[in-house]
Amino acid sequence: MTSPRSLERLHVVFIKPGKYGTDGFVERFRRGFMPNATLYHMRSLTPSSVGGVEVTTETIDEYVETDLGYLDRLTVPADSGVRTLVAVVGVQSHQFHRALDLAAFAHDHGHLAVVGGPHPMTCSTAELHGRGVSFALAEAELIWLEILGDALRGELQHVYGAGQRWQLELTHPVIAPPTRRELRRYLNRVMGVYPARGCPFRCSFCSVIKIAGHQVRTTPLETVLGTLRAAKRGG
User: Fold this and answer.
1) Rounded CA gap, 149 and 50, in Å?
2) What residues have CB less than 8 Å from 155, skipping those under 6 apart?
3) Dihedral sign, CA of 62, 68, 69, 72?
4) 112-116 and 49-50 as β-strands: parallel, antiparallel, unpaired?
């Protein structure tokens, strides 16, 4: 493994996984309804450098990726001095099998891989721990910088966030919107923004309280306004 001192760049590939259809193939569409908010939230949480090492990112929404060239980035070994971290994000239960396949595929080709989202946060993944793929069990704001730091060192922990699932205060930065080129893949030029998380109610049919907790937490007003202004400038 490349040591942090010799590492020139950490490249993070964010993937929102698709799901397998009844025919066993991944469902894909020429155009989606709207961009996935998690991809751009995670990209915005990622600093341009960590520990003096440059960090670059790319986002992949499998639902609208009809060109399978993106899989090459998970197979081709990184150049000397560059390490790749594959983050499979926003994973819901119907996407979990595909997420595991993508993460294992990346790991088998020498890359680091972590899976996060509603399913790992609310369902047990214990039987999969210690097999090369990591799992994020908490909100990204709590653990993402720790994951990036471990990626610099070349080895991830089996799980992150087992002791605390939710951040007490929402302190994420202004969310950078999809580019105009990315927006062309979708029917609606809109962007999901979440100014608050949590719900005080205890409805038995709803998963929100399992994913975001009972305590209602709000993003600072200036952050919300900054995100809306950035979205407007982005089209």
Assistant:
1) 7
2) 1, 112
3) positive
4) unpaired
Cβ(32)–Cβ(63) below 8 Å: yes
Q: Is the pTM of the predicted complex or chain greater than 0.90?
A: yes
Whole-Å CA distances, 42 to 46, 116, 204: 6, 11, 29
List the one residue out of 103, 74, 96 whose CA is nearest residue 11: 74
SS3 of residue 223 by DSSP? helix
- From residue 219, how far is each of 130, 171, 200, 208 by CA, in Å? 35, 7, 17, 17
The model's pLDDT over 98-143, given as tens digits with 9 standing for 90+, comes to: 999 999 999 999 999 999 999 999 999 999 999 999 999 999 999 9
- Counted residue by residue, the chain has a size of 235
What is the distance between the alpha carbons of residues 52 and 67, in angstroms, rounded to a whole number?
A: 34
